[in-house]
Amino acid sequence: MSKAHVIGLGRSGISAARLLRREGWEVEISDRNTSNNFLEKQLMLNSEHIQVKLGYSLDLCGSGLPDLIVVSPGVPWDSPILMQSRRMGIETIGEMELAWRYLQSTPWVMITGTNGKTTTTALIAAIFQKAGFNAPACGNIGIAACEIALQTTQPDWIIGEVSSYQIESSTSLSPYIGVWTTFTPDHLSRHGTLENYYNIKAQLLQQSKLQVVNGDDLHLMRVGLSHWGNAYWTSIKGKDYLIGSKGFYIVDGWVMETANILAVETDVRIIPTCTLRMAGKHNQQNLLMSVSAARLAGIDKETIYKAIAEFPGLPHRLEHICTWNGIDFINDSKATNYDAAQMGLVSVNKAILIAGGEEKYGDYTSWINTIKVRAAAVLLIGNAATKFAQYLQEVGYKNYEIVLTLENAIPRSAELAQQYQASAVLLSPACASFDQYPNFEARGDEFRRLCLEWSGNA
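RESULT FIELD:
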């Protein structure tokens, strides 16, 4: 019996182990963690004849080496053990690649990008499901891809949010439609250079049958037709800004489709942009790319309209929590880098901004300049608070306070919002959450809880 080793006892690792076991592999799964939650998982998987090793790091010395290693997305592809396994000729892949091998007969839409991919993935899945397709969302959203492979009924379409981590640990992902939302510096501590980060993302699009590319993104616009000559381009700024002759754009409040896609005489109106209830130009871009994927899959205009009109938005992405004394409290915890936080800030009129956490590498200049224009005051939390205060001082912005925690920030933000007649309190951190929370969801959940608790008591 062939032997497989899965690294990581999270959602994707467990589903990968179960899939391999079902396919007749001898499977062991390991994780460095030894918490009570992981002990429960160990008992559950042991009952399924999957060996679990907690507090363990894979060792490739001695006998009994695995024939296959499957890694969860959080495991660095250039970690010494994975570099060693590849040198030794042990097949080493990510969980997404494993799922693809069992699901490649089903057409996929795969969405990648620095920002916007989760919202775009959710919108695409909503449209496909409204069209009557069994079209689950998976990857960084929804369920693990291997979990779909474990289901007895195979879907009509699969809508996958695919990160750079998942692409770099894959070799054969070839979706029917590949969507590239944005490209800005991120994850460079893992990928090293911007060029390497770009090439990883580009790999997915190069292997896609049809390509949808955001023509309003500065980097993607710059490489343009020289890199993506056959792509369907998008632009929220109108047809004159469309790269190439085919694609989708917005004009006079309508999403438009170029005539040459359907071989008709004039460009086609698809849906009014006001159908989407989410604020911000970036969400107009997400809408445009989602409609593009749906139309390339042959979905009619009426179905697209109904799906978008019913779409409620996503937690942690400009999520409206409550209104107190005319002040909206908005959760944008998903804004974990400068570009995403800047988009959140320009979507809200005159906000009290809560920012900070574990700082990421990147160019903060544009974000800081946007704060000067749009933020009535800034409350700084987490490890980055002191550094962010320095950035604000450098541009002469003095209306900030270091409060360190969300618990301190909520009541103070309400006071400042009343003082400056601000319309909103916005959590848009521009940082990872790992200094205080396990993930951005936990941070956003805490913000939601504190806001509701405080507004109720107030």
